[in-house]
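Postdoc handover notes: sequence design on the structure in folder B. Input tokens:
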């Protein structure tokens, strides 16, 4: 086949992948397309019997009981939060006060969104990273050399009245259910910020950072991971850290999230109705490296679709993020340069985002 004949075929193939993995699966797949096959060192580790090789047991993250956090055992819970943020960069929250119907309804309505015809979902497809609503695929479909087995819907959510008119109007109850969910996760985030500040021994009431975070950004990211015919060859999401301060993750009952712990990938047990909360790059910077933004990735499986809903929270997009002055003294020099959202966008617009490269680029290397 001549080069002039090959080029249109390649373009057509790429266009097919740009429509998302759900679209591919809906049209029938028995093998993973080459575009989704990861280099061998980056693949999940599977045995020859095609069963996922797991550690001896899945990792059980520290559990924070929100009721305890608001009660007389607060100081003990704060110590547990500090230890979790230093050791794992992750913890799970139970008894968080969000009604079970709110979280269940959010998962269900998101499933319905991804079951809509492609023509309806594609209305929100754009490469504009600042768009109030963005439907897309992979991790960064404009930069990824190898695609991930994931489609997503990203919704800016604060201030909610500014963005709500742009949110999907189908399914018919999507906006109302997602509004309740976004509002309640924001309230949970604000309570967690207060606890995080206390755990760092920073006064939460007289604290400019806490005030900024109260007015800060919120993005709700819905992730859809369809069943994959050859899950040992691909990933739902590549190893990455979260840009932001804190991420609150709601999962269905299908496991898939892994974190890098002691140089090994370990799977997190989903606890029904709980939230997984993780430290973002901004909190690692703000804590001057005390709290760790940890690498995590997502595996897929051959039998069950998986839905997760992440609520990403941070400072306002115009804010400068830097180590807290209250954690800096003559014995503790700043470990990170000041940064802002514009710097981040410029960084990811020029390369494939992966691992903790952006955070590493902000580190100060003292002689």
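Designed sequence:
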């Amino acid at each position: 086949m001549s080069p002039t004949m090959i080029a249109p075929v390649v373009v057509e193939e790429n266009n097919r992948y740009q429509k998302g993995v759900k679209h591919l699966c809906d049209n029938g797949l028995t093998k993973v397309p080459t575009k989704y096959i990861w280099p061998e060192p980056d693949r999940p580790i599977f045995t020859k019997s095609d069963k996922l090789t797991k550690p001896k047991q899945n990792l059980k993250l520290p559990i924070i009981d929100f009721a305890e956090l608001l009660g007389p055992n607060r100081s003990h819970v704060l110590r547990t939060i500090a230890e979790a943020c230093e050791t794992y960069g992750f913890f799970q929250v139970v008894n968080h006060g969000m009604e079970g119907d709110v979280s269940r309804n959010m998962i269900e309505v998101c499933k319905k969104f991804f079951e809509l015809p492609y023509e309806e979902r594609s209305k929100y497809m754009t490469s504009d990273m600042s768009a109030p609503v963005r439907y897309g695929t992979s991790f960064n479909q404009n930069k990824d050399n190898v695609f991930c087995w994931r489609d997503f819907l990203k919704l800016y959510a604060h201030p909610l009245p500014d963005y709500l008119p742009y949110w999907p109007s189908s399914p018919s109850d999507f906006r109302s259910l997602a509004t309740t969910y976004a509002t309640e996760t924001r309230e949970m985030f604000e309570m967690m910020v207060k606890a995080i500040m206390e755990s760092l021994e920073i006064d939460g009431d007289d604290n400019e950072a806490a005030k900024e975070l109260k007015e800060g950004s919120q993005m709700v990211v819905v992730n859809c991971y369809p069943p994959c015919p050859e899950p040992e060859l691909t990933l739902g999401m590549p190893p990455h850290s979260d840009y932001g301060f804190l991420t609150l993750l709601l999962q269905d009952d299908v496991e898939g999230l892994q974190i890098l712990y002691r140089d090994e990938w370990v799977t997190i047990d989903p606890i029904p109705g709980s939230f997984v909360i993780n430290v973002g790059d901004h909190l690692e910077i703000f804590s001057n490296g005390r709290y760790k933004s940890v690498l995590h990735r997502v595996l897929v499986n051959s039998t069950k679709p998986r839905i997760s809903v992440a609520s990403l929270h941070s400072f306002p997009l115009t804010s400068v993020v830097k180590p807290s002055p209250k954690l800096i003294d003559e014995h503790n020099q700043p470990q990170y340069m000041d940064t802002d959202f514009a710097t981040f966008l410029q960084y990811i617009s020029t390369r494939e985002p992966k691992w903790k490269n952006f955070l590493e680029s902000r580190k100060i290397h003292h002689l």
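Context for whoever picks this up: Confidence is low (pLDDT under 50) at residues 2-10. Don't rerun without checking with the PI first.
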